[in-house]
């Protein structure tokens, strides 16, 4: 049997996983595409393309491919694998086909239409997938998790933060965070979800806000991961050749590190140093 071409390096991880499993099943069965075509009644071209990683095969082709190889794992293995690839491809298509909305001049008597957020687009795509394939729709938390993975702009991240607030008041969020040992002021919350900001929130404030909004611990990591990715992206886009650029970047880096430190820890460190210095001075004075 002729060796198959390698799966392209730029394919989606979920699509790569599906194609790899199909290829492994074929190798384990020791069948050629000609024999597999006889077993499944699909053409060799269709079967070869299904395992190429370049295009998502239909569920029927995927199921027939696995059955034609005599794979014993059944639909409980192949369906989630195919569904994950299908969702990933659909989300990529939705992101690619959604351009920046051009500015729209509001007309008399008509309200200006709100631009859809990333979370809105994800939910619409999940609902379309449910209608098309009869799959179970994602929960709101899972939809936001997917939207976080698709965030490429700080504005999108802040929009998700604002959506996370829901019907909670600023006092509710502040009090819930305080009850769990975190401090955040209403001013911080208002700044974090405001429409005029272009900065990723500091790690401590973001965490306090998430706790105050009752985000489950399993999802908190996704928020921090997205925030870190956007911070790195911002740093990489910084102009490296402007006058005094090195010192400006160094200053910004030092400010970022300082903002990440807990004020309480900093005060505690200073107090410890002062007490130690006083003790050493006393020992020297009395000859110890």
From TrEMBL:
Keyword Lipid biosynthesis on entry: no
Positions of region (Disordered): 93-118
Claim: RNA-binding is one of the keywords in the record: no
GO molecular function: DNA binding
Pfam families the UniProt entry points to: HTH_31
InterPro entries: Cro/C1-type_HTH (IPR001387), Lambda_DNA-bd_dom_sf (IPR010982)
Keywords from the UniProt entry: Plasmid
Full protein name: HTH cro/C1-type domain-containing protein
Source organism per UniProt: Streptomyces sp. F11
């Amino acid at each position: 049997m002729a060796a198959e071409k390698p799966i392209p390096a730029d394919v989606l991880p979920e699509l790569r996983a599906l194609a790899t499993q199909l290829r492994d099943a074929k190798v384990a069965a020791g069948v050629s595409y000609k024999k597999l075509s006889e077993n499944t009644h699909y053409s060799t071209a269709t079967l070869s393309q299904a395992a190429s990683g370049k295009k998502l095969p239909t569920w029927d082709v995927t199921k027939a491919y696995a059955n034609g190889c005599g794979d014993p794992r059944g639909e409980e293995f192949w369906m989630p694998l195919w569904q994950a690839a299908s969702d990933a491809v659909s989300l990529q298509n939705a992101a690619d086909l959604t351009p920046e909305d051009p500015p729209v001049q509001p007309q008399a008597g008509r309200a200006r239409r709100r631009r859809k957020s990333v979370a809105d687009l994800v939910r619409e795509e999940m609902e379309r997938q449910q209608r098309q394939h009869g799959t179970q729709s994602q929960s709101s938390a899972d939809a936001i998790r997917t939207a976080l993975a698709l965030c490429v702009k700080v504005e999108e991240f802040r929009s998700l933060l604002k959506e996370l607030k829901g019907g909670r008041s600023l006092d509710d969020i502040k009090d819930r965070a305080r009850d769990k040992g975190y401090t955040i002021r209403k001013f911080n919350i208002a700044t974090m979800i405001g429409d005029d900001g272009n900065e990723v929130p500091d790690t401590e404030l973001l965490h306090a806000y998430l706790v105050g909004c009752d985000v489950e611990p399993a999802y908190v990591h996704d928020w921090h991961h997205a925030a870190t990715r956007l911070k790195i992206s911002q740093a990489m886009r910084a102009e490296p050749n402007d006058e005094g650029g090195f010192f400006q970047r160094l200053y910004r880096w030092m400010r970022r590190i300082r903002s990440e430190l807990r004020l309480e820890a900093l005060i505690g460190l200073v107090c410890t140093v002062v007490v130690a210095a006083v003790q050493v001075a006393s020992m020297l004075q009395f000859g110890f």
